Automatic annotation (TrEMBL):
Belongs to the pirin family. Residues 42-147 form the Pirin N-terminal domain. Pfam families: Pirin, Pirin_C. This is Pirin family protein. InterPro entries: Pirin, Pirin_C_dom, Pirin_N_dom, RmlC-like_jellyroll, RmlC_Cupin_sf. SUPFAM superfamilies: RmlC-like cupins. Residues 207-315 form the Pirin C-terminal domain.
């Protein structure tokens, strides 16, 4: 995986080990993500399908995009489409994605980069592989997470954060057997918290952990946050009761101070390590009305979003498109 790596993990700051009285988070549910297609036809796994929305709050959904090796001419993206009322977090692990919007924003993200788009009051947006990648083909793999916005931020002005892989916070376990990339939020370090560069309206954390075979991760986690894990590749166990998990499965953890993930000693040759994304946030606990690309508090607000979109209030597609 081209997402940022470190040759010698022993040089990194260490995570705080669980202390006396710290409670491990139990495993409430393990689900297997169904597969489907999105946009112009690229394959996705619906990572959190089957988990109750009340347990996902403040998140709406997460898609694993790929992992797929495209032949020349095959790479696909999305057509122009609207958003309102939430944020999209696109994390590219392998490959390259261009993005552009109706407000003049845009850019390119590649191996280990994250694009954080606050749709807010409304935006038109397109995501697609660059033309050179369409012509050559190649590996494409990433995640897109939808983060809800609280009622008082749903109509804020749209904005972008382009987070480069070199900006991501890095930490490891006491035995230097796990690389933990902190993209947003903070995790407790032995000396000081390790923070990610992502700025969020809703207090949350997003990390990508890579576990060497046989290694164990005891990840400190804010007790006010929920906690969800998703296995990108490899196999292992979660929780103190060591529930088995594998690629394409999601884990819902219960309340506690830290969560436990362990990599199997033997991994497949195609996935020599266990990669798990962990995300959690403080629940918003507001009414949710979700229809397609609009995430609001009431059905009337969703209908208003459709009307505003049809009237062109989200901006216009640039002329060269």
């Amino acid at each position: 995986m081209p997402a940022i790596t470190v040759d010698d993990l022993s040089v990194l700051p260490r995570l705080k080990s669980p202390g006396l009285g710290d409670q491990p988070r139990p495993v409430w549910q393990v689900t297997t993500a169904p597969t489907g297609f999105e946009g112009e036809g690229f394959p996705v796994r619906r990572a959190f399908a089957g988990i109750d929305m009340a347990h996902l709050d403040p998140f709406i959904m997460m898609d694993q995009m790929g992992e797929v090796e495209y032949a020349p001419g095959e790479p696909k993206g999305t057509p122009w489409h609207p958003h309102r009322g939430f944020e999209t977090v696109t994390y590219i692990i392998d490959g390259t994605f261009d993005h552009q919007d109706s407000h003049g924003g845009g850019g390119t993200i590649t191996n280990g980069d994250t694009q954080w788009m606050t749709a807010g009051a409304g935006i038109l947006h397109i995501e697609a592989p660059p033309e050179w990648l369409v012509q050559s083909g190649g590996l494409f793999h990433g995640l897109q997470l939808w983060v809800n916005l609280p009622r008082d931020a749903k109509l804020n002005n749209p904005k972008y954060q382009d987070i480069r892989s070199a900006q991501v916070g890095l930490t490891t376990t006491s035995d230097a057997g796990v690389l933990v990339r902190v993209i947003a939020g903070a995790v407790d370090g032995a000396e000081a918290p390790v923070t990610g560069p992502g700025s969020t309206y809703t207090p949350m954390a997003l990390v990508h952990s890579t576990l060497e075979p046989g290694s164990r991760l005891e990840l400190p986690w804010d007790p006010e946050f929920n906690a969800l894990g998703y296995v990108l590749n490899g196999s292992g166990t979660v929780g103190t009761d060591r529930r088995p998990v594998r690629q394409g499965q999601a884990v819902l953890f219960g309340a506690g101070d830290y969560l436990t993930i362990e990599a199997d000693k033997t991994q497949e040759s195609r996935s020599p390590k266990l990669d798990v994304v962990v995300v959690g946030g403080r629940p918003i606990r507001e009414p949710l009305a979700w229809a397609g690309p609009f995430v609001m508090n009431t059905k009337a607000e969703v209908l208003q979003a459709y009307e505003d979109f049809q009237k062109g209030h989200f901006g216009h597609i640039p002329g060269h498109h």
